[in-house]
Amino acid sequence: MFDYRIGFATMVLLLVACTDNQQEKGKIVINNNSDYPISDVKAIYTSAKRVDMLGSLPAHTAYKYEIQYTEFEDSITIDYTDYVQRTHSTTGAAYAAHYDKQRYVVDIGGQ
Hints:
Layout lengths: L3 H21 L2 E6 L5 E8 L4 E8 L3 E6 L7 E8 L5 E10 L6 E6 L3
Parallel strand pairs: 1-7
Antiparallel strand pairs: 1-4, 2-3, 2-5, 5-6
């Protein structure tokens, strides 16, 4: 015999999973996987010549940055400074367009 509670619980889990993914589109998730904080985190837009200062990110934390779309395609670089004051640059979104919103993940550090 079918237990309706199990069916209902399964449907709720699927709904929550799908809703969460939709909310993540149009964002860059920046993961600081190191044992140290990083500072001067920036999102740099190539075409728009825009720089968004994001601040610092503590060790083993993540930051969800909402992409600021324009009418044109753009690429976004994430720059940051590590704990020994070295500056790093990595691709945040090689191709970002408002009509093709994606979720991007950038892993920083990693020890």
